[in-house]
């Protein structure tokens, strides 16, 4: 099968993701920095630091006995509470490292320089030497613009700390406290950092100083992590409270006002490339324009011809299959790739397409046409797909199911998967004896449940069932938690069992599938349709944002930045942070270079 068809849906999602990220990064960054994700960002930082720990050893000796340095003035105040320079640099470095890790992972997935091109951030440079892409990540109306990424991170960090102080105070007022388990989780993270430090011949304070900057030590990082965990808990509780208060009238009103945002359409897609491979480095501009025009017309005509006589979904699939086979025969002498594993029926299917995906891929007008309630099964159209304002593909689009909302009731259940093979999909080669052994193992789990837990069991006791019956497998076979599940990645047999009309709480079953056996526990079925829960979640998110904004306007949480020495302290601290990052990047690059040389050797 041609590579085009295999990538058609992936291309749509990739473009939608890329443009959506650029469109929403500025809007979302503020919320992400302020809310409960700070703890998870810190965990990412730990992972990044551990990954490049080898570069740390060269610098640790310098700070091995200076984990906590001299007093430095505050850079701002939240109410009457000072934001210290140490606290500021900890969260600044946390945010920067998270951003850097995202950029690195994106480049690894899509190619070097991809994140810098589409998000404007180059992880190989310090924030202070990079202009902030205000044109790429536009501010909200009346919002702020920034000269550099350093300015952006500085603003976001200060406002994030403001929110942390405010939310912590509100959590205390509400009587929210950490459980022993939550406290132990923070302690575990600290011990993981200590282990990494020890492996590099450093004290924990020295390691923290190297990672986050002067003045960062075990005592204050523990305090901040405990606070972050409390704020995370409080924010989640407040978000759930606000979401649960959303009324049915509000849900219906939002749906009627923004139907397209909550509807889906099922399509068939076949892609035709605009082949501009004849444009070389030395091609003149006029020749390049002619090649582009001819290639554009050729692809458009091919797509039109493809759709011309198609009236049914079956005809679309057959036509796609015929084209695939023709392309394979044409290219069979030019490739040694393995035979395709998917059929045209699979690769052309694009189910539950959302407006945002279609808008980013094809533009507003085409998205509105595809999602219009006037559409009917059999409607078809050729639409252009653009990259950097140039048409790179034409899609032949066939509407197989016009715009609809998801009225399904989601199911909540748990599942253990016992596969017939380890890491192989060739289940046909598995012996009957091996299959019987797998089934017997799964059956033992069911028998244990019926004998011990069926009467008073719960989702939680089911989740720990494997550890009691087969403790040796507890680390490799995980109990999956499926929430609001309708259809997705599970085998049809499991989905059909979970969605059966007579399914009830505490039902447990062993379900045989092509790839193995599933032991499934049914917890509950939602009383709200999937579309209602989606609308409710959207309104809940909006309500939380409004709560957050109102919270920060309270006088007791007012942010003061014009106190004595504050601006000077901030300027000095920012310079120090960027020097530290410059050293960090240098050491990271040296480590990567050494590793590359070693691998070559």
Number of domains: 3
Q: What oligomeric state is this?
A: single chain
Give the CA-based shape.
globular
Report the β-strand fraction as a percent range. Answer: 5-15%
| Total number of strands | 11
Q: What structural class do you assign from the helix and strand content?
A: alpha+beta
Biggest beta-sheet profile: 4 strands, antiparallel
Q: How far apart lie the N and C ends?
A: 39 Å
> What Rg do the Cα atoms give?
28 Å
Poorly predicted ranges: 1-7, 16-71, 422-427, 595-601
Helix content: 55-70%
Mean pLDDT: 82
Can you count the helices?
21
Main β-sheet, spatial strand arrangement? 4-3-6-5
What does this structure look like?
Residues 1-7, 16-71, 422-427 and 595-601 have low confidence and may be disordered. The strands form 3 sheets. This protein has a 4-stranded antiparallel sheet. It has 601 residues and is of the alpha+beta class. The chain is globular and about 75 Å long. The chain has helices at 3-34, 37-51, 53-63, 85-110, 114-119, 149-173, 180-199, 204-212, 218-244, 248-257, 285-308, 313-331, 344-347, 355-362, 364-371, 432-453, 459-463, 465-469, 492-499, 530-552, 566-600, and strands at 74-78, 81-84, 264-273, 349-354, 380-387, 390-404, 409-419, 480-485, 508-512, 516-529, 559-560. The chain folds into 3 domains: 35-244, no CATH class; 264-404; 409-528, Chitinase A, domain 3 (Roll), CATH 3.10.50.
